[in-house]
Amino acid sequence: MKIKKFTSSAGLEILVGQDDASNAYLSLKLAEANDLWFHVAGFPGSHVVLRCADMEADKESIKEAAGLAAWFSKMRNGKNVSVHYCKAQNVSKPRKAKAGTVNIKQAKKIKATPHLPDGAAWY
């Protein structure tokens, strides 16, 4: 799978899918119910998961994950990019839809500036 891994400034893992197959795997298999899922609103782009485990994600980690969703999308050169996010348990695949296509429930929106975290190195 083509999944990039980052660490937020608070030490939380952020995972970024790189194609339809890795987006589907990340969003529907790898993400746990309490993790947060991110995607740029209305444009093609990567699915991003902020691993939360049993804790509540801090605001800075949410902003960083949203910034990565904006960076790894068609809106990379945009400003104040609208990003949807929700708990991973609210992400599902529509019947007979192609890989990477999802439905989301109870989504929130955040405005994000596309960016990589300072000193970002993915592996």
Low-confidence runs (pLDDT<50, min 5 residues)? Answer: none
Write down the secondary-structure element order.
Answer: EEHEEHEEEE
Sequence of strands across the biggest β-sheet: 1-2-4-3-5-8
Shape: globular
Question: Using DSSP, what is the number of strands?
Answer: 8
**Measured distance between first and last alpha carbons:** 12 Å
The helix fraction, in percent, is: 10-25%
Given the helix and strand composition, which structural class is it? alpha+beta
Arithmetic mean of pLDDT? 88
What does the radius of gyration come to?
A: 13 Å
Brief descriptors of the model:
single chain, about 120 residues, two-stranded antiparallel ribbon
Description:
By secondary structure, this protein is an alpha+beta fold. The chain has one domain (3-112). The chain has two helices and eight strands. It has a six-stranded antiparallel beta sheet. A two-stranded antiparallel sheet has the order 6-7. β1 (3-7) and β2 (13-17) form a beta hairpin. The two termini are 12 Å apart.
List the helices and strands and how they pair.
Elements: E1 3-7, E2 13-17, H1 20-30, E3 36-40, E4 48-50, H2 59-71, E5 81-87, E6 91-92, E7 103-104, E8 108-112
Brief synopsis:
By secondary structure, the chain is of the alpha+beta class. Helices cover 20% and strands 28% of the residues.
